[in-house]
């Protein structure tokens, strides 16, 4: 991200932290003060509005959704120009992503595992592997990359993503 400073650089930057980060910090504070209080009794989640800025977890979820959808719609036989554009896109994305720690980590993954742009399948599988590396670091469940096109392009074989099913 750019080196210019803004109010978003502060500790309370929503795209750099999440409610779970707040809970962790609160627990640390209470442990330092040696209080024997159940943290769950003290912290009450505020009412959730739908029009608030995204926190780090929401931003990550929506960003991965965007990236996987782009990969799902990528051509099966892309021209050299399209391949250059997708490489440029990922490079730019990794430089402007609002969470600097996340952006740095993504740039490192791009450096270690160069983007595969030969086909839709190659790009989707590459992105799934990168996403799983992030999930592993965060202690999240890994996604079965053999199902990436069902999840992001075609819909599940049981038809649960079909519009008619949703209307019934």
TrEMBL record:
It comes from the Eukaryota. GO terms for cellular component: mitochondrial intermembrane space. It catalyses: 2 R'C(R)SH + O2 = R'C(R)S-S(R)CR' + H2O2. It is found in: Mitochondrion intermembrane space. Its EC number is 1.8.3.2. Its cofactor is FAD. The keyword Protein biosynthesis does not apply. PANTHER family: ALR/ERV, FAD-LINKED SULFHYDRYL OXIDASE ALR. This is Sulfhydryl oxidase.
């Amino acid at each position: 991200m750019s080196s210019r400073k803004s109010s978003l650089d502060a500790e309370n930057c929503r795209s750099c932290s999440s409610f779970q980060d707040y809970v962790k910090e609160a627990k640390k504070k209470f442990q330092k003060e040696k209080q024997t209080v159940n943290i769950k009794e003290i912290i009450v989640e505020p009412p959730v509005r739908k029009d608030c800025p995204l926190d780090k977890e929401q931003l990550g979820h929506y960003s991965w959704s965007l990236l996987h959808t782009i990969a799902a719609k990528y051509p099966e036989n892309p021209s050299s120009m399209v391949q250059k554009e997708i490489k440029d896109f990922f490079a730019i994305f990794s430089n402007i992503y609002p969470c600097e720690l996340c952006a740095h980590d993504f740039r490192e993954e791009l450096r270690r595992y160069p983007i595969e742009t030969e086909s839709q399948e190659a790009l989707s599988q590459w992105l799934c592997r990168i996403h799983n590396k992030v999930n592993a670091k965060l202690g999240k469940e890994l996604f079965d990359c053999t199902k990436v096109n069902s999840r992001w392009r075609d819909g599940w074989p049981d038809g649960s993503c079909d519009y008619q099913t949703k209307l019934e």
